[in-house]
């Protein structure tokens, strides 16, 4: 992934074009879902999908899961602030979807992303939106994993 492809104004421009083309959609009926983790139950509070283009694979090839606690602000504030990086996320190469969740016991946040490929998922770890999130996370609570679909 080139540094130019992670230049924030270019990411916003790409996200704007994707949205204008009708490829970006927020799923409203996912909000009541509960995902059961090892030691936490997560409630889904937002989901965005990017409809694939003709040159993308029919189905995602990788899942990227990140879990962390924010260093500052209450959960309600962080849920609101999590809207800010959406254009930077949907503009990432190979992005397919993101589901935002919050833990019922600890208030930990979890993101579940779908990507075209393992390489796209691996590249996301060092992307501009992940750098923003890493700055706001409590370091010892931050972990991620990548799974083949």
How would you characterize this protein structure?
This protein has 149 residues and is of the alpha+beta class. It is built from 5 helices and 7 strands. Strands 1, 2, 3, 4, 5, 6 and 7 form a 7-stranded antiparallel beta sheet that branches. The radius of gyration is 15 Å and the shape is globular.
| Counted beta strands | 7
Global morphology: globular
H/E element sequence:
HEEEEHHEEHHE
User: Low-confidence runs (pLDDT<50, min 5 residues)?
Assistant: none
The CATH architecture = 2-Layer Sandwich
Radius of gyration: 15 Å
Please indicate the count of domains. 1
Overall pLDDT metric: 91
The major sheet is characterized as: 7 strands, antiparallel
User: How many alpha or pi helices?
Assistant: 5
Sheet-strand content, in percent, reads: 25-35%
For the termini, the CA-CA separation is 22 Å
Helix percent band: 25-40%
> What kind of assembly state do the chains in view correspond to?
single chain
CATH topology (fold) name: Alpha-Beta Plaits
Q: Structural class from helices and strands?
A: alpha+beta
* Text of the CATH class: Alpha Beta
Could you write a compact summary of the structure shown?
With 149 residues, this protein is of the alpha+beta class. It has five helices and seven strands, in the order H-E-E-E-E-H-H-E-E-H-H-E. It has a single domain (4-148), classed as 2-Layer Sandwich (Alpha-Beta Plaits).
